[in-house]
Amino acid sequence: MNSVNEQPETGITPGGTSGAFRDVLSKDHARRGKPPLHFADMSDDERIAKAEEIGLPKFRVKQLANHYYGHFDIDAEEFSDFPAARRADAAETFFPELIHEVTRQVADEGETIKTLWRLFDGSLIESVLMRYPTRTTLCISSQVGCGMGCPFCATGQLGLTRNMSAGEIVEQVRVAAKAMRDGDVAGGPGRLSNIVFMGMGEPMGNYRSVLSAVRQISAMPPEGFGISARNITVSTVGVVPGIRKLAAEGIPVRLAVSLHAPSDELRDELVPMNKRFNTTQVLDAAHDYYLATKRRVSIEYALMRGINDQAEHARLLAKRLNHYGDDWAHVNPIPLNPIEGSKWTASKPEDERRFLEILRNAGITATLRDTRGQDIDGACGQLAAKERD
Ligand code: SF4
């Protein structure tokens, strides 16, 4: 029996700092406490109890939910349906500031915005908003740093500092949704339509908070922001118990698996997590996810020059995916964004083209992923949360 069977829950931490990902914590981890409790962290009963503590009747909680999820408001001044004397109290109790904007970098003529946020304990995280003609996508972080240690990835070099709370995750979405509604993004007022958990962190490493955030993002107001679950993508490096647990939730979110290599030999080197859950286990789980949700799984594949981008890799990838049948997966080869001081570099364009061609000839749908935000280090694997001058 292997270690996976002995520890079926390996890889899912209930939140906080315990569990299987403790192994790659950053050095200053110990001094950090918990983020302030926020409306988005509380159950309905907890909200009602909290309201009672400050002398507010139950129905005020519903009004607050309307402000928060329906109108993206947390400012006391906006609570016009509240007695003037109670507004500040309510805002302070339920909406402590969880993410504070440090810097904002803009690219693609204002249609890509990368924001660096400081959390209550000084931790830095990032989110990236990308506006396209028919949709607007926000890429959000779910952990401070990442404990997966992929050697080609800027975030991986940081190690894991801590899990983010549900409130910290949801706040990234609220602020972006408000900015879109208010016309603060180039292109005028619009609607935030898509969310991808592809910023800092391994979402399955912070399962409980991520799932709570998914529910709050997808529920209709006043329970959530009303962004369809079908437009939410949860990515994972291949934490198999997390994939299986998510499949059982019955929420039709899209799953994205960062595969990056078609064989265990190569993937062991590129994605250390492969030693815990190998390519067969990961692909089995991904295919089961497809069967359970009927959502096509995205296979993310960062193309690295001379390492995983050759014809033999494309052929093996196609073979392994076709083993499970047709049309269940969509491959997104991503040109690697080289990070400073790294030996990993982006593929040659002709190798990229050949890689795609081989997949397509084998009947696999494949699209070269957009590298929006590359000039502001905002594309995949580049979120290093550096504070700039
Ligand atoms: S590639 Fe993804 S899983 Fe790997 S270290 Fe980077 S953020 Fe973590």
From TrEMBL:
Keyword set includes Iron: yes
Ranges for domain Radical SAM core: 132-375
Stretches for region Disordered: 1-22
InterPro entries according to UniProt: Aldolase_TIM, Elp3/MiaA/NifB-like_rSAM, Methyltransferase_A, RNA_MTrfase_RlmN, rRNA_lsu_MTrfase_RlmN/Cfr, rSAM, rSAM_sf
GO biological process, any: tRNA methylation
Cofactor(s) the protein requires to work: [4Fe-4S] cluster
Protein's UniProt keywords contain Iron: yes
An annotated GO cellular component: cytoplasm
Function: Specifically methylates position 2 of adenine 2503 in 23S rRNA and position 2 of adenine 37 in tRNAs.
Protein name: Probable dual-specificity RNA methyltransferase RlmN
Species this protein is from: Bifidobacterium ruminantium
